[in-house]
Inverse folding.
């Protein structure tokens, strides 16, 4: 049976990965999250989903009326599009791991017929 790693153990493993020329733990998680979001973008127009960034049902059925994320190729609601622009203006980007799709991925799975 496995156990959860302490933050210190995770940090030490991440630093060892970096020293070995590999991606850090944080970089691995960020890349996996980016890939998951990009996979979602392939089915996004096939159903009514919440905004992958904030989780609210603000997405317009007409894709041209939604914002395109500045972080990854996926549509987000207009409010999140504005938030991303403001984050870029002040130079503080929130990580993809904080997006609702990363926190609640089951809400973004396509219903099987």
């Amino acid at each position: 049976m496995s156990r959860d790693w302490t933050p210190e153990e995770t940090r030490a493993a991440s630093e060892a990965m970096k020293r070995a020329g590999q991606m850090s733990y944080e970089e691995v998680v960020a890349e996996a999250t980016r890939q998951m979001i990009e996979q979602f973008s392939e089915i996004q127009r096939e159903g009514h989903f919440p905004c992958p960034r904030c989780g609210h049902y603000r997405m317009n059925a007409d894709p041209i009326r939604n914002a395109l994320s500045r972080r990854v190729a996926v549509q987000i609601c207009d409010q999140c599009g504005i938030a991303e622009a403001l984050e870029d203006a002040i130079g503080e980007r929130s990580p993809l791991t904080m997006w609702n799709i990363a926190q609640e991925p089951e809400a973004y799975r396509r219903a099987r017929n």
